[in-house]
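Hey,
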Amino acid sequence: MKVLIAEYTMFHEPALSPEGRAMVSVLKKSFENCGHTVVLPEAGSDFNMEIERLAPECDYGLVIAPDAMLSKFSFTMDRNTHNIGTESMPVAVCANKRLTSKLLANVGIHVPKEVDASFAGKRVIKPVTGEGSQGVHVAADGEEPKEGEMSVEFIEGEHYSVSIVGSRVIGEACGYYSGLPPVVLTVNRQFSHPDASGKFVYEGGETPVHPAKEVEMIEVAKKTIETLGCQGYTGVDMVVGDEIYVVDVNTRPTMSIVGIVNVIEEEIADVLLKATVGLPPECVHYNGKKAVFDAEGKVTVT
């Protein structure tokens, strides 16, 4: 079968392209290991038009792009082939951090509260729509968020993510909906922290890790993607202290995947393809290794 992997930053956002190349590299290798042919967009072409051109020739497609653009490209993929990621409407919801937080809070999931400059404690200012730690910083005293930004309480704790693959929940439901639960890949530690200027910096992470609240974190991740309608690979970012706070939901492969492929026995491509037709494996199996990866995708396995 042919699989289109459409990753935006490799050709259009040089600052993020090392991360994009690293993710495409491991995904391409896994799909090819499973006997599939991988198709990539051509450099220099209009990205959305490339999806329109290539997707009809492919059996499956996967989009990786910045949050602000992901819904548009996912919609194009949805119309032209079987999208193995989250469909465009839930992608649009998850791209809006304010809306995502509201929906999660409504079902009892802890999220950082939105506060104004009069808030007595530490605050974080971040884009309403943005990727990872980009544009996220500790607020100065009295600092107001600019247009397109929001101000939330600073949560003390350890930074983690849960990588999880949701079964088919919407779209082509008659053919593929099974009601089976998602499969958890790994819990990952994130090397994310504010620097001396207060700007949050992402420096990679390690996987798998097994924190004291691992079971509870996994249940929160499952409830999160169920609430938001996510399917396929999803990364649920958390800060864990006295409580478990969900701080971001990524409806696409994240950098953790470059480590995950080194620590599970299954091919990630096989997991994604089974999940997208409603038949995710019950679990994945760890091989006893640990992977540490940096922000550009360099991986050390021990």
